[in-house]
Amino acid sequence: MNRKKTFKCIAVVFVGIASYAAAAADQPKPATAPYVETIQIQRADDSHILGYVDRGESPTRQSVLLILQGSLCESVAPGADDRMAFTLPPGMARLDIEKYAITAHDHGSETVPCPAAYLAHNTIDQRVIDVLTVVAWLRTHAAWWNGKLYLMGTSEGATVAAMSGPLVAESRGIVLVNGSIGRPFREGWSDAMAASVSAAGGDVSAVNAVRDEAQTTWVKARRNPSAEEQAFGNGNTLRWWNSIIDLRPSNLLALTDTPILLLQADHDEMTPASSARAVAEQFKTAGKINLKYVELAGLTHGLRTLDGKPGWESVLAQIRVWLATTDEHANPPK
Q1: For the chain: N or C, fewer Cβ within 10 A?
Q2: pLDDT at res. 35
């Protein structure tokens, strides 16, 4: 295969990435909730975490569902493109937090570059620290919180949920959707790129070219994790890649007995199902029984059917039932 055709196949991979990135924007947007409270929590570096608490109209003490978005640099404010449309189980409050430097009025998109401060600071480590900071805020500022926390993450957000959930004593349930959890991220990403090129008609040399490109990027990210250089998508700096490529979040998940719901699309073009299957096998080998693994037949990374139709409603309904049941039986905080 000539060089021109090789890079045409590589471009197909990037188009696939952009298509997934728009998945959250494809969901029907909920009406702006009249009961959403905006919160600001100061980080150690004097910047602020911006969050949105939706308690509905409940006057009672509530459990909290913290929803962690994927790898976009868009906003999760009410009505924003990256906010998941999700109906809460009864008696549960919703909390969404923006990534570093993102606001409803200052964010990136498929056509707009990510804010400079976001590029400089956004990493998996930062997102985990933000979760821990938010939980500390809940303990001291949310008199309405009953002390039970649930985390739900999709794609990159699943990585964050899998790493932070086991570190929080109040965690009562962790939901992970289409995240690279059971294999190092670098392996799944390389496999996904190679599979996309092969599906687009690329030959062995084209497949090897994208694998080599990925390996070169990992080397650069380890040697010089710069926020000035990006790779494989808008906003994915070498600093961000350095924070994720070697992570196997299932090692942290194995430290908790908190109930876990792991959902994985079997036609996920970005996160191979082998990663989720590895988690199930790891838990089985360890004799752990707190993981429920569900493989989503015929769905893609963006939770669409193979002919492009939305397939997320049944998935979200399944999550909602699991959360309600788990919360009903969860032990109250000590």
Answers
A1: C
A2: 80
